[in-house]
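Retro notes (design track)

What went well: tokenization of the new backbones is finally stable.
What didn't: we kept losing track of which sequence belonged to which structure.
Fix going forward: every design gets posted as structure first, then sequence, in one message. First example under the new rule, 508 residues:
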């Protein structure tokens, strides 16, 4: 029996033409999927020798771990049972249950890893070996080798180990994970629950997942069964290359429900190379504090789409400050990569080469401009500074900005004392926020300081009114304010109302 895929094909077989009967149409061809392999056995047999079990041990004491035995029940003072239980617990749990400190004990953690170099370099997750006193690697043939930690990346949850072997070890290589597509077959190999080399199969379920584990989240999601102990193990494509490092699962029960996450190979191999060379990751650093671009912010600045990352502040002495990037700029492109939203930028910057000069396209004053900046290495204790304000005025007379639902005044010593502002604070202080207004809805409160309006520094209420008038003249529906408060700085868009009356007092 022959499969007929379309009406046109059937007509051709019958010698009938549709040309004059119906208008021409565009045929939608069915998607062609690669067939599932008959078996993964040959691939698994080739890959298993390069996948290892990683075991780490840690000494736990009363300060860094739980007690070694059960606590003694509470008895009334002088009870005959008190001494009985104390003697029992001391006999069965030396150092525990009595008055003395619990004795130290050894805790073991099990995970997975894979060999990337015949000389004995092994990749795993940082959380598998974190805090370990000793780390050992067990090969598929049962050989156990002591491992040393070459380097760790806490932010990216990666670690590189080194073992010594009398013979070259089997290895696997990283793939270009950007070529992996949703729906591709994958194999996960690891050490679930300490059982040893275990193979599971599935597909790439999604890409670019942010599971809120860190600022570099960009996980591959898979439905290949991943359980506790699989951490640090490889996720393979059908060519036997590592496309990801199995790191986390989503599970209410603690077991696999088909939602696992792997660090992409393209991210991992750069970090692994840095761990091998430097012992720590060397991520690119721009030195900016950013926030999401909302539709209101985009509209207030004349930006067509709510894309990019808005600079809320720059770090003193950082690459951004040196390149004259400033608060209020919206970063649209970085080193040729589009910044679709705020969360894209940290990953793109981190992957860039330290010391490299890169172009940064920003939206400023209603147009795109390109700024060249040289990246530095991200400090371990990165501190982001707030943007500076303008020159304060001497007067403290309150001004009613009813169009925004605010009462404001310039910074003065009296207001610094009242709201516990810093000595160098500059800008315009919010004294009161009318209820049921956009300002109240945005969470503005007395003591907040308006540093900029429409990306222009303000020192007195008249500066704010000037920007309001200009925004209305340009037919803007929103105005953008940079607010400084105890927790830092943030850009806040406020809607420009057509009436000066607060929402609860508008005429009906």
């Amino acid at each position: 029996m022959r499969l007929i895929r379309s009406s046109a094909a059937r007509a051709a077989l019958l010698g009938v033409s549709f040309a004059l009967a119906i208008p021409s149409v565009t045929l939608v061809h069915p998607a062609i999927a690669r067939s599932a392999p008959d078996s993964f056995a040959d691939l698994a047999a080739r890959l298993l020798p390069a996948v290892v079990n990683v075991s780490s041990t840690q000494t736990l004491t009363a300060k860094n771990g739980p007690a070694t035995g059960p606590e003694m029940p509470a008895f009334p003072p002088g009870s005959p049972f008190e001494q009985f239980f104390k003697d029992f617990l001391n006999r069965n749990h030396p150092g525990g249950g009595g008055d003395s400190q619990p004795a130290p004990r050894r805790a073991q953690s099990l995970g997975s890893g894979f060999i990337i170099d015949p000389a004995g370099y092994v990749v795993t997750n940082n959380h598998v070996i974190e805090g370990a006193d000793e780390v050992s690697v067990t090969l598929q043939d049962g050989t156990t080798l002591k491992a040393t930690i070459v380097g760790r990346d806490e932010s990216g949850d990666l670690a590189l180990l080194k073992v010594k072997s009398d013979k070259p070890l089997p290895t696997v290589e990283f793939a270009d994970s950007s070529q992996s597509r949703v729906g591709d077959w994958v194999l996960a190999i690891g050490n679930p629950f300490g059982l040893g080399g275990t193979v599971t199969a599935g597909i790439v379920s999604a890409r670019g997942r942010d599971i809120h584990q860190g600022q570099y989240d960009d996980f591959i999601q898979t439905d290949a069964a991943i359980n506790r102990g699989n951490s640090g193990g490889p996720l393979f494509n059908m060519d036997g290359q590592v496309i990801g490092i199995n790191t986390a699962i989503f599970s209410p029960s603690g077991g696999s429900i088909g939602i696992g996450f792997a660090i992409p190979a393209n991210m991992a191999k750069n970090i692994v190379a840095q761990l091998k060379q430097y012992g720590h990751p060397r991520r690119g650093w721009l030195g900016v504090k950013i926030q999401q671009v909302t539709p209101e912010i985009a509209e207030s600045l004349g930006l067509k789409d709510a894309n990019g990352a808005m600079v809320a502040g720059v770090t003193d002495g950082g690459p951004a400050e040196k390149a004259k990037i400033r608060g209020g700029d919206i970063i649209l492109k970085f080193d040729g990569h589009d910044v679709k939203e705020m969360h894209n930028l940290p990953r793109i910057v981190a992957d860039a080469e330290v010391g490299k000069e890169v172009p940064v396209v920003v939206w400023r004053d209603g147009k795109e401009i390109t700024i060249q900046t040289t990246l530095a290495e991200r400090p371990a204790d990165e501190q982001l500074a707030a943007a500076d304000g303008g020159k304060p005025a001497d007067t403290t007379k309150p001004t009613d900005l009813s169009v925004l639902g605010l009462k404001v005044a310039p910074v003065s010593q009296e207001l610094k004392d009242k709201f516990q502002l810093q000595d160098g604070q500059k800008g315009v202080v919010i004294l009161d926020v009318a209820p049921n207004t956009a300002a109240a809805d945005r969470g503005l409160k007395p003591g907040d300081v308006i540093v900029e309006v429409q990306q222009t520094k303000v020192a007195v209420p008249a500066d704010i009114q000037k920007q309001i008038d200009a925004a209305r003249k340009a037919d803007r529906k929103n105005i953008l304010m940079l607010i400084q408060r105890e927790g830092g700085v943030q850009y806040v868009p406020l809607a420009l109302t057509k009436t000066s009356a607060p929402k609860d007092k508008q005429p009906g």
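Added context from the reviewer: The chain has four domains: 46-61+104-281, 62-71+78-103, 285-377, 399-505.
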